[in-house]
Batch of 3 targets.
Target 1
Amino acid sequence: MSKQENIRSAYNTIMELKGVDEFKSMIKRLQVFLSNKQKYALSDINLPNYLLKISRGGGVTTLINAFTNFLHATKAIDFCGLERSFEFKLSYTSPELYFSELTRFENTLVEMAGYKHHYKGVVCVNIHEWLGHTSEPHFKRFIDYIARNKELVVVFYIHASNKSNKIAQANFKAMESVLSLRLRLETLELRFPRADELVDHVNEHFMQDKGFTFGADAKALLCETIDELTTGKHFSGFKTIAQLANDILYHVLSQVLVNSKEITAKMLKGFEKDSIYVKRQKSQTGPKKVIGFTDTQPVVKHPTREDLSANERSRV
């Protein structure tokens, strides 16, 4: 494909995403910026970094992949390394402990650079554990390190909290303030898709390519079901929705089908909002993969200052 065809394809992929209207608006602004940058030959203006506030399971990995593909198609940055983007979870480290997370991040950049001199690309950093700790020196040290590496486009993100939670809102604003003081930053608060949008997502990505489609009554039933699923403590966003779609397909294909491939509410008996299926999904416990990570991270014992050699202490 030509460059313009690649750009159009990457752009359309983003515009088809559900529930990320602010992200789509940012991409439209970015497209204008890139056009003007080329028009006026301004090569010394770098892209900003980004702070996302997004629901758990809201599709950060999909978002970053689509964003990275758009930047690559538009040649917005010079990619260099084994991967164009990667995800990194910055675990919280208390002030009295050695900040090994920064060393781990540096080592990851070296690993991602591969045989190249250094890494250039998109880095998605989960900083949720640092909410309420943004005034601590370790966090500021990490952000200062990012500020010095201008060839990285860093997308920080946290999981969205209940908007009525004033403490969570204050912690987010504090984080935004600390980041903005050290970085050029754009903040995006992304809503999770509505139930009707998720039904359309299942219809488009799981049903239509198999030749099936939902009837109006089936859509109404599934809207109620998805609304109920989202209230579950262990709801994992698009992963849960994908599981629901696969379970529905298995259930439908286990029935004697007539010529019509329209799925009706009658065919979805057992997937109602008060069904055993929904109750079981809401009560599920145990580790779940969420946005590229699992809820149960291995416990890492960070060395204290007393554990460090004299040379290591000088780095703290």
Target 2
Amino acid sequence: MHLTLLVLAFLWFAFIAPLKVTLAVVASIVLVTAVVHLVAKSVVGGTSLYDAFKSVGLSLAFLLLGIVCFLSFVKGTGLSSFNEFGVLAVLAFFFASYALGFRFGLRATFGASTLVAAISSITSAALLFGLRWLIA
């Protein structure tokens, strides 16, 4: 079911975005999925490309859900300023919600999925930063 929702969300995005942006998003998703697959294979063990794609989609969905929960918390409590420990707690919450997608997508322990999320995020960001001339 979640794969159907991801495909429908991508189709909706493809209809409203320019072709160049859509192709850049597809290339980014393929690159990130390949990096997650390689990292997960070395950390967790045998994973498939489908599991890597599913974990990327789930991690982004959980991150979006975490952002919505955080915004609801901010609106409900009236807190608008976070400093020192509060900022670290919010960042830890966002990273935990992001790593939770890898936990369910790869069927791994939370520690292993946290390691996969950290390594693949840093590697993907470095690769996308290095290849930004293709997108621009």
Target 3
Amino acid sequence: MPASSTMPPKGTGDLRRVWPIGPGWRPRVVSAVASGAVPKRLHPYLWLLPVGVITGAVLIYPWILSLLLSFQSWTPISPAPPRFVGLANYARVFADPQFHTALLNTAVLVIFTVSIQFVGGFVLALLLNSITVGRTVLVTVYLLPLMVTPAVVSLGWKMLLHNEWGLFNWALTGLGLPRIGWLSDPAWTMATIVMVDVWQQMPFGMLILLAGLQAVPEEQLEAAKVDGANAVQTFVHIIVPFLAPLILVTLLFRLIFALRTFDIVYSLFRSGGPAGAGMVLGIYLHEQLRVTWQLGLASATAYVLLLVTMALSFALIVRWYRSAVEA
């Protein structure tokens, strides 16, 4: 019987007759689409189907599984099956003093890194936008820290900040100043983490804001100059409003990245630092899983971190939206 006789009438949508699982399914799918077995309104979604399958396998399924585990008590090294405990895991997380320390350290990290990276990146973007000769070379140089993995960056800084033979302490002793325990003194732990993170991540904001500055319409700048506006007035009333969406994107991404900081801290200290002074939420989650192997408790911690990230991101977006509406 000819292959065309096995095709269903056009528009029936019965794909099962022409798409059996087995050898030769690709030409059958092509024939099904060409013959009208799949309605035309569904054709665009067929292109998205592989992406949907991959996303579901690597994102949605682990999310759902971890959410279910967060309400259970289970460790993979025990033969006992998972046991439903309700909100007990979440209660344990919020009652843990180490979680309070990690939350406080993460807040300090977010406030200092995001603010310094944004202001510093904006200043660098303004400086680079004001020059024309050698701009490409300078931008490439400034972007080099962002291209290096955080683990490599941390190892490099670990050598520079070594208590005995690090370059920083060598310079301090050369100036007659006492050595600083960058990696061993709890009082300097968060300062060290902030310094390394700012050095690496500042080019991110600089790159986005520089692209926005180069897109500011010259007509608006010329009109402001004709009206007698000085540089500060032009910056406040023209440049900042024009860059408002990019400023939001920069702050939002840096906020999310700072909240899930892990690799820099782990590469510098292999844990939460001396006396737990560098215990941030990412390290707290890792240590909790590595020490206890309680997947339910670790899943609950991960969802607490997700809720904190979503709450702060939503607050930032709402604040920006209200400011845009009022303006």
